[in-house]
Write a structure and sequence with these properties.
The complex is a heterodimer of chains A (593) and B (188).
Chain A lengths: L1 H11 L2 H52 L4 H50 L12 H31 L18 H6 L12 E2 L8 E2 L6 E6 L17 E3 L2 E7 L4 E7 L5 E6 L24 E2 L3 E5 L4 E6 L4 E6 L14 E3 L2 E6 L12 E6 L5 E6 L10 E4 L4 E6 L3 E5 L6 E6 L10 E3 L2 E6 L3 E6 L4 E3 L5 E4 L10 E2 L3 E5 L4 E6 L12 E6 L10 E3 L2 E5 L4 E6 L6 E6 L9 E3 L2 E5 L3 E6 L3
Parallel strand pairs in A: 1-29, 2-32, 19-23
Antiparallel strand pairs in A: 3-35, 4-5, 5-6, 6-7, 8-9, 9-10, 10-11, 12-13, 13-14, 14-15, 16-17, 17-18, 18-19, 20-21, 21-22, 22-24, 25-26, 26-27, 27-28, 29-30, 30-31, 31-32, 33-34, 34-35
Helix pairs in contact in A: 2-3
Chain B lengths: L1 H5 L3 H28 L4 E5 L9 H5 L7 E5 L34 E7 L2 E6 L9 H9 L4 E5 L11 H5 L5 E5 L14
Antiparallel strand pairs in B: 1-6, 2-5, 3-4
């Protein structure tokens, strides 16, 4: 039946139809090949050559940025930019249309071939079989060749498998993107007052004696006034922070803001960078001279260094000094000028952005956490407080991390991961500048000119006035922060009175019963907060004299360290080293440098 | 009569069977086509809070011209004169190509009033490289962000960009809410 049909069809098919089908197939095949060739060429151009041209354009753009006056180069950039853009979209358009065209050609080709096959069909005509001997010989040759090639490939693969592990490849550069570990943070001095903002160094090998006059234990000093090869830095009262071999601090004037990175080993300036001014300030805006334009201490997580200025400008630089991000949080309304230092929790930069109320009496203060890598806001929590100058601390309490803050009228603890309030207590009065400290399960806050109080950190919710336990009412500092080893608490006032308080009694009838001693350093004033290292308490006076006390229950000044400089910043302490930012010099003190 | 009803010769059996098969085939084809035309329940989208503007959206999409485009959240935009998403860092305030950050000139700058400018995305030109998004996030208000445009996306079962996304920013969203737009509360 089939044979009959095919025979009839074949016999009736006109030769012109067969020719047309063959010609159609040929033309479609040629077109398909040409289009495929063009598409492949297009793909190669876009994949391999176009990116190079784009890189070249970027290089030219950088050259123009370096020399904006080069009009010839600028013109070249514009022409090349236009050419590349036209090329990009022309090629994309071609790619799309060419794809459809290729599909059409292939369809025509297949149809033509089918028609040609249909018109061309003939009955099979058996022919005498040729001699198979030659074919068998060729087949045997091919088989031997195939086996030889397969064996050779196996041998090569075997050799590679043996040699590969012996080849030393260059290790990829690992980019540290995650947050630092607790151990890393504790080994450095990453924020104001070091680990957890408590002023306590875990190292016990810190120098206890130095003298700039004869160079004893002075590892290096670098001028910050542009003398003796040192850089000329902008003024600032912020304290240095340290991560491994990097020392960071910032300086600013009304017109300019800068971040500095020094080498811990040599004291050489690694880099200095301008921080772009994003804030819009009017001529009436001014700060108190004692606060200055760079009062906030920087923070670092070893991946980046973060800085904030009283204009609300905040920026992040990587360890090589590249600006990573830069934002403005709004001009903070602060009576003396914004001065709170930054805190860190994992990869979050935490900002206590306290301001006085707006004209309608509504609070404007807020806690803000920004993602360190991107500057993106992680969380923001409004705060029912007035402007303050204390710095937030992130501390590990019994079962969780708490972000503890103090301002008028409330002390508030937050979960640093999401900004949710854990507990709060009011009413405290006054301009809050000293930062909180922690001992056991209590946080200690200074209510300026009135008292120092303790609040239990395992509290929850809003606490009443009864939650405050008064620890002391005398010798209260208004600028420096207190320090505690868990049993004793020390304070140093601006006027130079150091006092020690016993925290061990659970309760006392009169707070003065806790006082163990007080001592006045005559003709000295103190802006730097104290540091505790091992069994020594370090008190840095404004004239550069460090008083080093035993941490016993009785007053005993063991030694002193002298530098010839005015000091307002708190010292930074890392393994065997103290770094002091003076007004004129940056000092590094090491035992037997 | 009963014999006539039950008797079914082979010709009728195949004839009726063929009709039944045709109807079944038409029903299956109709069901298949209906299934194809049914809207999907979820779509691919980029979570702007996770996106790090790495540039993968420009190169990993199965479409040659990526289905991901930059989007402008006008409520967040600062309408800056010096827009970090529009101009190269440190560039002069000029719209010359040497100062523009976008490699395809896909951002249009329009004067509003001194010193404010509006920035619009020309979608046909945007290749989703994310350069403007990264710069706006780092140095501006973060009003520029990337979104999968559903008039272009073919909604693959396994999105090639999602597989390559280093920030796991690609998520499935219900078709009723196909976009994850930034709001004023999100920006820093």
């Amino acid at each position: 039946m089939d044979n009959k049909t095919n025979t009839a069809t074949t016999s009736s098919s006109p030769p012109v139809a067969l020719s047309a089908a063959r010609a159609g197939a040929g033309v479609a095949a040629v077109f398909a090949l040409i289009i495929a060739g063009f598409l492949i060429g297009n793909w190669i151009e876009m994949t391999f050559f176009f990116p190079r041209q784009e890189d070249r354009l970027l290089e030219m753009k950088q050259a123009v940025a370096a020399d904006p006056a080069d009009e010839q180069l600028t013109l070249q950039v514009r022409q090349m930019d236009q050419t590349l853009m036209q090329k990009r979209f022309r090629r994309l358009d071609f790619s799309k249309k060419g794809g459809y065209l290729l599909l059409g050609c292939v369809t025509v080709l297949l149809l033509s071939l089918k028609f040609a096959q249909y018109f061309e069909y003939r009955h099979p005509m058996p022919q005498p079989q040729p001699d198979q001997t030659a074919e068998q010989v060729r087949s045997a040759k091919r088989a031997r060749f195939s086996v030889t090639v397969a064996l050779l490939a196996a041998a090569v693969a075997w050799i590679v498998a043996i040699v590969w592990p012996l080849v030393q490849f260059e290790a990829p550069t690992l980019i540290e993107t995650g947050p630092p570990t607790i151990e890393e943070v504790n080994a450095n001095w990453a924020t104001f007052r070091g680990p957890q903002g408590q002023g306590i160094s875990p190292y016990t090998n810190i120098p206890i004696k130095w003298d700039a006059e004869n160079g004893t234990n002075i590892a290096w000093e670098t001028s910050l006034r542009g003398e003796n090869g040192g850089p000329e830095t902008l003024p600032g009262f912020n304290s240095p922070v340290i991560w491994e071999n990097h020392i960071f601090f910032c300086g600013a004037t009304r017109q300019q803001r800068q971040v500095y990175c020094f080498d811990l080993q040599t004291g050489q300036l690694r880099w200095a960078r301008d921080v772009p001014m994003l804030a819009v300030i009017d001529e009436d805006w001014e700060l108190m001279e004692d606060t200055g334009y760079a009062a906030c201490t920087m923070a670092t997580d070893g991946r980046r260094a973060y800085t904030i200025f009283p204009t609300g400008d905040i920026a992040a630089f990587d360890m090589e000094g590249n600006l990573v991000w830069n934002k403005n949080l709004g001009l903070p309304q602060s009576a003396y000028g914004y001065a709170s230092s930054l805190a860190m929790y994992e990869d979050l930069v935490i900002i206590q952005f306290d301001q006085f109320e707006d004209d309608d009496g509504n609070p404007q203060s807020r806690m803000i956490a920004l993602d360190g890598a991107t500057g993106r806001m992680a969380w923001e929590t409004p705060r029912p407080v007035r402007d303050s100058w204390s710095s937030p601390v992130v501390v590990k309490t019994a079962d969780q991390f708490q972000l503890i803050t103090c301002a008028e009228p409330s002390v508030i603890a937050y979960n640093p991961a999401d900004g949710q309030m854990i507990w709060s207590a009011a009413e405290l009065m006054g301009d809050m500048a000293p930062s909180p400290v922690i001992a056991g399960n209590k946080a200690y806050f200074i209510e300026v000119y009135n008292r120092i109080v303790a609040v239990k950190t395992d509290s929850t919710g809003k606490l009443t006035e009864e939650a405050f336990e008064t620890i002391a009412e005398d010798d209260l500092p208004d600028i420096t922060s207190p320090i505690t080893d868990g049993k004793l608490l020390w304070m140093i006032t601006t006027e130079g009175i150091v006092s020690c308080w016993d925290l061990t009694p659970e309760s006392v009838s009169d707070p003065s019963e806790r006082m163990l001693y007080d001592h006045e350093f005559e003709k000295e004033s103190f802006y730097a907060s104290p540091v505790l290292a091992g069994s020594k308490l370090y008190l840095l006076g404004n004239k550069g004299l460090m008083h080093i006390l035993d941490t016993g229950r009785e007053y005993k000044e063991q030694t002193q360290g002298k530098i010839d400089d005015m000091c307002y910043a708190s010292p930074a302490v890392v393994d065997g080293t103290i770094v002091i930012r003076g007004i004129n010099n940056l000092w590094c003190i090491k035992a037997n440098p | 009569m009963a014999e006539q009803k039950t008797s079914l010769d082979r010709r009728r059996f195949f004839g009726q069977g063929l009709w039944g098969a045709c109807f079944a085939g038409i029903g299956t084809a109709a069901g298949f086509l209906l299934g194809k035309t049914k809207k999907p329940e979820t779509l691919w989208q980029i979570d702007p809070s996770k996106c790090i503007a790495c540039g993968n959206c420009a190169t990993y999409c199965v479409l040659e011209h990526s289905a991901v485009k930059c989007v402008q959240a006008y409520a967040i935009c600062g309408y800056c004169d010096f827009c970090p998403g529009y101009l190269e860092p440190g560039a002069r305030l000029s719209t010359g190509a040497e100062n523009e950050l976008c490699p395809t000139g896909a951002i249009e700058r329009n004067f509003i009033e001194d010193p404010y400018y509006e920035y619009n995305i020309i979608e046909d030109k945007c290749i989703a490289c994310g350069k403007c998004v990264k710069a706006c996030e780092a140095f501006g208000n973060g009003s520029l962000f990337l979104q999968v445009r559903h008039d272009r996306c073919v909604n693959c079962n396994e999105c090639a960009i999602a597989a390559a996304c280093p920030a796991d920013a690609f998520v499935r969203v219900p078709v009723e809410h196909p976009y994850l737009l930034k709001g004023v509360k999100d920006h820093a």
